[in-house]
Amino acid sequence: MPPRFITLADVEEVLNITSTQAYALVRSGDLPAIQVGGRGQWRIESSELEAYIQRQYEATRAKAATQR
Questions:
Q1: Strands 5-7, 34-36: pairing kind
Q2: What domain range includes position 12?
Q3: pLDDT, tens digit, for every residue of 14-45?
Q4: Which pLDDT band holds residue 67 (cuts at 50, 70, 90)?
């Protein structure tokens, strides 16, 4: 069973982006996340990452459709 929550480092790896870009996605609210622990470490639900990816696919399709 895959973990329910993943770290920002995991997001970076999955999306092949930098830590700054991953943090910006969370801070902007584009990628919902929670802060846990005394140090406020960010955690992202795996399902939220998948939902974000699907939204990006939909946005890309819509943009491509308007450029035809």
A1: unpaired
A2: 5-66
A3: 999 999 999 999 999 999 999 999 999 999 99
A4: confident
Structural Rg of the chain based on CA atoms: 14
Task: Locate 49 and state its tokens.
Answer: 């990452």
Output the six-digit token pair for 7.
Answer: 């770290």
Q: How many independent structural domains does the chain possess? A: 1
Please give the mean pLDDT across all residues of the chain: 95
Domain with 36 in it: what CATH number? 1.10.1660
Degrees to nearest 5, angle at CA 67 with 62 and 68:
105
Reading across the β-sheet that carries 41-45, which strands appear in turn? 5-7, 41-45, 34-36
